[in-house]
Amino acid sequence: MREAFLAELSDAALVALPWLWDFWALPHQRPPEGAWRSWVIMGGRGAGKTRAGAEWVRAQVEGAGPGDPGRARRVALVGET
Predict the structure, then answer these.
(1) 21: burial class by Cβ within 10 Å (0-12, 13-18, 19+)?
(2) What pTM, to 2 d.p., does this model score?
């Protein structure tokens, strides 16, 4: 099944595939639907919490897909480490 899917992709799509977060993200790493102000991701080490947050911020600035300008220009990302 995976081989058939990959065989149908163009060379350009295959090159872009590693950077398409929507393709790789697990369900618990996707932002909630609807209007929200806080998003809590509860998970252990390696659950992808940091990556999910980073990809959401990136999508806000760069846009979620090709041609999407994004909606944020100034970002302050503050968090305890």
Answers:
(1) middle
(2) 0.74
pLDDT tens-digit profile of 21-43? 988 999 999 999 999 999 999 99
Structure tokens at 71: 């909606």
Domain residues of the chain, as ranges?
A: 2-62
User: What is the distance between the alpha carbons of residues 17 and 11, in angstroms, rounded to a whole number?
Assistant: 10
- Amino acid making up residue 56: W
Q: Which amino acid is at 45?
A: R
Through-space distance between the first and last CA atoms of the chain, rounded to whole angstroms: 40
Residue 71's H or E segment, with its range, is: none
